[in-house]
Amino acid sequence: MADSGKLLEAPAHARVASISTPAQAKPKKVVHYPFWFGGSASCFAACVTHPLDLVKVRLQTRTPDAPKSMIGTFGHIVRHNGVTGLYGGLSAAMLRQITYSTTRFGIYEEMKSRLSKPDSSGSSSPGLLTLIGMACTSGFIGGIAGNPADVLNVRMQSDAALPIEKRRNYKHAFDGLIQMTRQEGFGSLFRGVWPNSTRAVLMTASQLASYDSFKRVCIEKFSMGDNLGTHFSASFMAGFVATTVCSPVDVIKTRIMTACPIETRGHTTIGLLRDICRKEGFAWTFRGWVPSFIRLGPHTIATFLFLEEHKKLYRKLKGI
């Protein structure tokens, strides 16, 4: 009985501690999503925005007598190739997303999940500089992995704009890979790989890292929920940043990939830059910026919306 009396007279702070301990929230686990989610989301987005990407390439590689505006280029394509002409090179675009986007998104998301620390509210993402470092690494690897498909994508989109005698007439992406390897050697698959990888680094850093940062600001600073409105706002701003950062490298990459071997023989990337600046001034750095943003903005928005839906469905199926 004495012992029970002592138990009843236990200090108040001890009784409070014993009551509050079970109520403490347990840290939630960091979710590891499948590696291919980014590539799948990008493929869905590419189907939506491919005509805009095609117009951008046509403007960047246009001849002096070709239309100079985006609307004029749209009309020119429909007039000469029909509505289906707006989807020229779609197979190469899909192959590019399967290789390039799957690699960069997959590596980035894997590194981010491993460096995220679980807490009671979900998980705390790494800081901005860490996100940029991870994005640069994954973008560089993705740029190399997707270069063959990127060369095909640019060539197939610009092919109809070339004189008949210079057209390559690839039937589809795999036919293009075979023809390029036979006619120009295996090295042709990696033409422009360094400017392309540089662009991939800039694209991934300015797109993925900025999206995560903008999303965090929307949720933490503006008290927005993790919902469609937040995803749209963050992806729109990420698309604007990505277009501006990548525009100069995008023009260089397109010029190199569409050039015939004889045109680039003996020319380094620096030499090509010097020639372009001498002939066109510095205005070339943002040539096609408007169609690039009109294409990359919706593509970025669609990609992240599809990606977030992939993740939402995955959590629902797994009961997380």
Helix/strand layout:
Layout: H1 2-8, H2 12-20, H3 37-60, H4 70-81, H5 90-115, E1 117-119, E2 122-124, H6 128-145, H7 147-158, H8 173-184, H9 193-220, H10 228-258, H11 261-264, H12 269-280, H13 289-318
Antiparallel strand pairs: 1-2
What does this structure look like?
The protein has 320 residues and is mainly α. It is built from 13 helices and 2 strands, in the order H-H-H-H-H-E-E-H-H-H-H-H-H-H-H. Strands 1-2 form a two-stranded antiparallel ribbon. Helix 3 packs across helix 5. It is globular, with a radius of gyration of 25 Å. It starts with a helix and ends with a helix. About 7% of the residues have low confidence.
Strands, count: 2
Low-confidence stretches: 4-10, 12-25
Helix content: over 70%
CATH topology: Mitochondrial carrier fold
Could you provide a short overview of the structure?
This protein is mainly α.
Task: Give a quick set of tags describing it.
single chain; Mitochondrial carrier fold; 13 helices; 70% helix; 2% strand
